[in-house]
Amino acid sequence: MSDELVVSKQEPRAVVALQPNTMGEMIEFAKMIATSEMVPKEFRGKPADIVLAVQHGAELGMKPAQALQSICVINGKPSLYGDIGLALVIASGHLEDIEEDILVDDKDTVTGAVCSVVRRGKKTVRRFTIKDAAKANLLEKPGPWRQYPARMCQMRARAWALRDVFPDVLKGMSIAEEVADFQQFVAPAPAPAIAAEKGESVRAKLQAAQEAQTAYEAPVAQEQAIPLATKDQKAALLRELQRRGINGRDTNGHRTFSTFVFGEQIESWVALTSEHYDAILEALAQVDSDADLAYIWERGAMPPAAPEPSFLQPESPDVFEAELVLEPEPDTTPVDAARKEFCDVARKCHRDTSTISGMRKALQSLVPDLLEERGSAAKFTAEDWKHCTARAPEAWGMKA
Q: Which one in 189, 367, 379, 383 has a CA-CA gap of 20 to 30 Å to 197?
């Protein structure tokens, strides 16, 4: 009898993922998984949450185990980790190219990050800077924003790019690194019951009700991402409009004007944010004529070019010919011509420059430093517009 060890060679078998097929199987699967130490902490002992997470993953094309490791719950909202979000977009086949860069200044200090993605030949660029993080108060709290600002800016820029360009792939799911920075909503304590004991005053009852309402509204106010315009800013805006002959308290007028500036209505000055305030002041500065401003306020569009006065329109070519010689005026200035050329290129790149806010967004994505230096598009020179026109095709991916 031979002492040699005989090893039989077997063909490797494909790994088959465990996949519940019925609701009963899913419930049993969730109960079993909920007791495991290998499942993320937020799912332990919560079979109902496991069922929902697996269902979310199935809608995105993930197996159960992958879904439980890739989906997290932050502030009660299911979200995807940034890496799995990118993996899903790559696997979809719709992503043609992606570039991620960390922005630094002359002193090699991180100033932000930029992410550009290409889908169907169209390039979309999203950036997130340290200034944005400071404005959102992200740098004040301890954690990764203080320790790894470059990585956090990268993940935020990536989240914006993927969510804006591939919503059909992500099925509306948020990115965890972005949601984690949101102000957590703390559910208010149950409203104290207004006691009905004999002899209790009506004032005490009303005070209890008011305190309950205040406790409910406080967390909502904390979640406001963009600060509202202050009373002083609103008062200054109304004074400026009044100086230009506009009744700022006209509800229909400010709705029409806000649609012209932002492309969407602001229902009331109560909802006016600090960003709205800055944009409206910029828009007012760009409309020199009070008559034009009144036309925009009423109709939400630029006034048409005024026709030539009738007394300058002779009945026959030789009338006034010897008496009046009019110098031809140029149709446009060099700045207007350069700006129009840029708008034509932007339109071919699917960028909306028809509104003031649309133009600002386009310039912010193309020449943020120049826009910050000039302060507004109204101060751009002809050379500035030509520079933007030259940069646009490459930056926005316009095909020849």
A: 189
Co-location of 362 and 284 in the same domain = no
Q: Is residue 271 part of a domain?
A: yes
Contact 363, 388 (CB under 8 A): yes
The tally of domains found in the chain comes to 4
In tens digits, the chain (400 residues) has pLDDT values of: 455 555 455 555 555 566 777 888 888 888 888 888 888 887 888 888 888 888 888 888 888 888 888 887 776 778 887 688 888 889 989 999 999 999 988 888 889 999 999 998 899 999 999 888 888 888 877 778 888 888 888 888 998 888 899 988 888 788 877 777 765 544 444 544 444 444 455 566 556 666 655 554 444 444 445 677 788 888 888 888 888 888 877 777 767 777 777 666 676 677 777 777 777 777 777 777 777 777 777 776 666 654 444 433 444 444 333 333 444 444 568 888 888 888 888 888 888 887 777 787 888 888 888 888 877 777 888 899 899 888 888 888 765 4
SS (H, E, C) the chain: CCCCCCCCCCCCCCCCCCCCCCHHHHHHHHHHHCCCCCCCHHHCCCHHHHHHHHHHHHHCCCCHHHHHHHEEEECCEEEECHHHHHHHHHHHCCCCEEEEEEEECCCCCEEEEEEEEEECCEEEEEEEEHHHHHHCCCCCCCCHHHHCHHHHHHHHHHHHHHHHHCHHHHCCCEEHHHHCCCCCCCCCCCCCCCCCCCCCCHHHHHHHHHHHHHHHHHHHHHCCCCCECCHHHHHHHHHHHHHCCCCCCCHHHHHHHHHHHHCCCCCCHHHCEHHHHHHHHHHHHHCCCHHHHHHHHHHCCCCCCCCCCHHHCCCCCCCCCCCCCCCCCCCCCHHHHHHHHHHHHHHHCCCCCCCHHHHHHHHHHHCHHHHHHHCCHHHCCHHHHHHHHHHHHHHHCCCC
For residues 285 and 359, membership in a common domain is answered with no
Same structural domain for residues 117 and 173? yes
pTM for the predicted model, two decimal places: 0.42
